[in-house]
Amino acid sequence: MSYSIMLHKSSNDMKKTILTSVLALMAFMLVNAGLKPGDNAVEFSLKNVDGTSVSLSDYADQKGMILVFTCNPCPFSKAYEQRIISLHLSYADQGFPVVAINPNDVEISPDDTMDKMKARAEEQDYPFPYLKDESQEVYKAYGASKTPHIFLLQNKGGKFKVAYIGAIDDNAMDAAEVTNKYVEKAIAALISGSNPDPATTKAIGCTIKTKS
């Protein structure tokens, strides 16, 4: 085989490899893109720490929902824990209750078993459901990447839509130094009939523990 033929064959192989890599990356991005503001929320039905099943549709009579992906051991989740409780206590009566979902794989994060979730909820007196995304399908559908990660939902004519995605506020580790309460501002915007601005912020926290 001549050098020119070998070079041509090598070039074609490289092009095929690059094309395959690009297509794989595009497929990965498409699968993991998750939701964005304005999208319909994804229905879920997950087990709560009290043994009941909780679904998005259970909240059809609410104005919206503060959906938070969180967990037990993450220091960011612990730092935000009282603020998440305060959000529920402040806004549940206004039609925006908190629902917390733990997305972590228990083989990788043993502190996130249902028993330990139940103990955490009782210890901290959670006033909201604390659900387990055992299949890890829900967090992937929403596009959550951190704990905590907020998805503020708005009920528009019986259909929940995503209104805001991101962080709770601008200071994860020091509540006293917060200058921008993103979730509270987003809820205030919805109540006043306008759209949250910003509609997205960067979630700060621990990576979600998954085997896949």
Task: Provide a short characterization of the protein structure.
The chain is of the alpha+beta class. The protein has five helices and nine strands; from the N terminus they run αβββαβαβαβββαβ. Helices cover 35% and strands 19% of the residues.
Descriptive notes:
It contains 5 helices and 9 strands. The relative contact order is 0.19. The protein folds into 2 domains: 33 residues; 173 residues, 3-Layer(aba) Sandwich (Glutaredoxin), CATH 3.40.30.10. By secondary structure, the protein is an alpha+beta fold. Strands 2-1-5-4-3-7-8 form a 7-stranded mixed sheet, with helices on one face. The protein is 35% helix and 19% strand.
Describe the structure using short key phrases.
single chain, 212 residues, alpha+beta, Glutaredoxin, 2 domains, seven-stranded mixed β-sheet, two-stranded antiparallel ribbon, 5 helices, 9 strands, globular
Number of domains: 2
**Average of per-residue pLDDT values:** 90
Could you state the CATH homologous superfamily of the largest domain? Glutaredoxin
Strand order of the largest sheet: 2-1-5-4-3-7-8
Order of helices and strands: HEEEHEHEHEEEHE
* Helix-residue proportion: 25-40%
Rg, rounded, reads: 21 Å
- State the shape: globular
Q: Number of DSSP helices? A: 5
Q: In angstroms, what separates the terminal alpha carbons?
A: 44 Å
Residue share in β-strands = 15-25%
Number of strands: 9
For the biggest sheet, the summary is: 7 strands, mixed
CATH architecture of the largest domain: 3-Layer(aba) Sandwich
Please state the structural category: alpha+beta
CATH level 1 class label of the largest domain: Alpha Beta
Briefly note the CATH topology name of the largest domain: Glutaredoxin
